[in-house]
Amino acid sequence: MTTTQTPTTTDDAPVPVRRPTTSVLSSLGGQNLSLMGALVVVLALFGTLNDNFLSLANIQVIGEAATITGLLAVVQTVVIICGGLDISVGSQAGLASVVSAMVFTSAGSNPCLGILAAIGVGILVGVLNGLVIVYGRVNPTIATLAGLAAYKGVAQLVSGGRAQGYVLNDPFFIFLGRGKIAGVPAMIWILVIVALAVHVLLKYTDIGRNLYAIGGNDTAARLAGININKYLVAVYALIGVVAAVAGILLTARTGSGQPVSGSEGLELKAITAAALGGCALKGGKGGIGGTLLAVALLGALENGLTVQGINTFWQNVAQGALLVAAVVIQQRRSGERAVGLPH
262's torsion region: left (phi>0), alpha (psi -120 to 50) or beta? Predict the structure, then answer.
């Protein structure tokens, strides 16, 4: 005599309950939690070494200094997500800075014309980068490396290699560089607005989903009907606009158009922040929240080293080391085989 067993259904199986704390932590992500932890350690370390490091005045200094890097890191995040890269953002900001100051001066101290001219130049060089990459079929790294040299050279040519104009006799530039809204510097508000707009674009729109799709698998994205060429040109144009805004803020902060000083090295900082924030350099992964945390970490680290009187050369060493560390961590997490080594 055989007996049959009635299969048990899963309907009565206990459903695991996620605790609110677990849900919050999982939504933040391990990458962001690591950055938060590192930021807390840096703040605590330099706060212990120097009593004034955690003062409100110094926190504002850190925020203002990190704003220009933050703007460039935000748009660098976008281009990395869609599988590209832009090494020319620092030179674009320097060129926009010079143009904004020179047009402001030549137009009878008209800030609107100076700002519009800078943004126009930003759109022009951004679209040029996109066209070279898309229709010239040039690798983004090579194309924007050429732009890094070319735009820096143009800025030096039109300015004679010197700071141009003086804008701190204009109330609007004074407000951009030194004004505050609700006790927070206007520069930081601009970064917040740009970051929120880009975050919404990436997370809640079809455009953002398409950008992730392009970076994740461009062949599948093309077969799905996404016009990749149009998206890439638009992304590089966006970079040009935001780089121009960064250049305008650089002008407002320093009081004159700066062809090189203040903009040199910004591309490394922007790429480092995006990589530390969780952007996969192969594309298809990343977010604005992680990038902003990385910007805050880099800003706090740079300010702390400066306050302690450590040679600025070591700051460059630290940035390079952080970029390598971020890429190594990405490679380990992805499980990708090391070059030249067996599986």
Answer: left
Distance CA 102, CA 169 (A): 14
Beta bridge partners of 185: 180
Return the closest-CA partner of residue 241 out of 145, 148, 125: 125
Q: Could you tell me which residues come within 8 angstroms of residue 200 by beta carbon, excluding any fewer than 6 positions away?
A: none
Instruction: Summarize pLDDT for 131-148 with one digit per residue, the tens.
Output: 999 999 999 999 999 999
Kindly state the DSSP code that residue 257 receives in the 8-state scheme: B
Whether residue 335 has pLDDT greater than 70: no
Please name every residue paired with 184 in a beta bridge, in sequence order, or none if there are none: 181
Count H helices, E strands: the chain? 14, 2
> How many of the other CB atoms lie within 10 Å of CB of 192?
14
Q: What angle do CA 276, 277, 282 make, to 5 degrees?
A: 80
Residue 184 three-state SS = strand
pLDDT-above-90 percentage for the chain: 63
Place of tokens 């983004």: 140
Average pLDDT, the chain: 87
Residue type, 19: R
| Residue 160: strand, helix, or coil | coil
8 Å CB contact between 245 and 169:
no
For residues 77 and 291, is the Cβ–Cβ distance under 8 A? yes
Given a contact cutoff of 8 angstroms between Cβ atoms, the answer to whether 154 and 244 are in contact is no
Residue 112, classed as helix, strand or coil, is helix
Query: Which pTM does this prediction carry?
Result: 0.86
**Nearest Cα residue to 121 out of 262, 246, 254:** 246
